[in-house]
Amino acid sequence: MKFIQIGQLLAALMLAGNAAVTPVRAETAAFLTPNGQTAPFEAWSRGDANSSFAFFESFVGDPESAAVSEINPPNQSFGPGLSDANLIETTGAAFVPSSGNIYSPAVAIEIAATVPSYGLGAGYDTRVVVQVGTLGFLLDPASFLLEYEIDGEPQAVEPQLQQELAHRDLVGGFGGTLQETLYVWDLVGWNADQYVLSFAAADASTSLDNLAIDIFAAPGASVEGDYDASGAVDAADYTLWSTAYGSAGPAADGNNDGVVDAADYVYWRDRAATAGGALSVSAVPEPGTVQLAWQFGIAMLFCWGSHRAIAPRHREKGPQDAA
């Protein structure tokens, strides 16, 4: 995926922030819309294949859980399984005033939002962009966390980038601050079937006004020596190479000479050592050893078969053999 690097992204966002409209009312959001050009959406537009979007704006109370939640209206979201997308306030001490926001004068609100993605698995890079608007007091930026699973193993990742989109003091009412902030996660080599975003306010009297979550997945840049496209150069790639040894085709042909041979083992070995993972390359047999073992096995089978073919048969003596 051709995502620009985080440093470049920050610079681009600062320029975009300077050009963004200044909100006059809370509902006039400075949120950015994916357009395939403006960072951090330079790689896709909203509605492209493998993209999903969830927008939370008008919340309802849930008397069963004493918390507040919202299931996405279909006209505000799209993507796989969006009927399962939801947002919930987890302290149970918040309520929804007439504004339709999530608010508590007594506790710092805590939010968890679940958004499905495509579950494309290994070999795909994923960018998650969160834009959140609040009124009153501010959110705690250190509380933002994105959770998902890789082959059943839980992952919890902090954002790589935070950028303020709008900030102004509110006049009248309860006062406080209007703030809109953008967070970015770049997740290399994996696309999960869903992502769970959690965050919290820094103090009581924070009102969640709106939340937009955009997710996009695309094939990642290939990793040299990663024959099984898992995103890592590891023992599984050696297994694929040894299975494909002697065959023609791209399965484990690291040097692209049209055949899987010992040179492709060296290609994998050197990159596995450079990767510096848990794999002990020295523990993997050299291709010459593998080939000799294979040839020895064939030779033994040949000798056994030849012995069976030429060895005389023994039979019991009969009357014709009598002296």
UniProtKB/TrEMBL annotation:
Keyword Chloroplast part of the UniProt annotation: no
The UniProt record lists the keyword Repressor: no
UniProt entry keywords in alphabetical sequence: Signal
PROSITE patterns named among the record's database cross-references: EF_HAND_1 (PS00018)
Highest taxon of the lineage: Bacteria
Gene Ontology BP, a term: polysaccharide catabolic process
Signal peptide: 1-26
Protein name per Swiss-Prot or TrEMBL: PEP-CTERM protein-sorting domain-containing protein
